[in-house]
Amino acid sequence: PSDATEDTDTDGDGTGNNSDAFPDDATEDTDTDGDGTGDNADTDDDGDGVDDSAEDAGCDLLADCDGDGVNDDTDAYDTDENASTDTDGDGIGDSSDPDDDNDGYQDTFDAFPLDSSEWNDNDGDLVGDNADPDDDNDGWDDVDETNCGTNPSLIQSAPDDWDGDRICDVVDTDDDN
């Protein structure tokens, strides 16, 4: 006769069935993160995204295991002290990548090394030429300069506007206005 309150150990692992998360598996008895995998087989017992071996070495999400000054939870390369970001997602850390934004222009020649939509700032106004309506900062819109036959990137190449109507005289059909 068995006592109903008796805590049996079906799998013989030393943990009674009432306390054993895996009463039929002698190799497991605990599932800390409740993911259905026993702690002995689970490589991330607490489910925090950090491998148990790294945590056992003293690292966790708020740590900086590689000592690069960037916490592991935001460090794309948490075991490489020379890299922490990969802006263009090409698998090469920005510190080793000659073109961080993958726009085809090496960072040393790219005025905007982390913005793939821009690489040049002809007039130095901190607005990339793709977004800047006046690349040479001469007061003439790039489209107007192009239509007038002048170079929108060269300040010495502003359109002629003798009558001051802000319409270049090359295409101005009414110079009296």
Q: Can you walk through the features of this model?
A:
The protein is largely without helices or strands and 177 residues long. It has two helices and no strands. The protein has helices at residues 52-56, 142-148. The mean pLDDT is 85.
Run of helices and strands:
HH
* Radius of gyration over C-alpha positions, nearest whole angstrom: 33 Å
Judged by helices, strands and strand pairing, the structural class is: little secondary structure
Shape: rod-shaped
Largest sheet composition: none
Indicate the low-confidence ranges by residue numbers. none
The overall strand count is: 0
Instruction: State the separation between the terminal residues, measured CA to CA.
Output: 113 Å
Mean pLDDT: 85
How many separate helices?
A: 2
Strand content: under 5%
Indicate the percent of residues in helices. under 10%
Gist?
This protein is 7% helix and 0% strand.
Map the helices and strands.
Blueprint: H1 52-56, H2 142-148
Task: Please give a handful of descriptors for the protein shown.
177 residues, rod-shaped
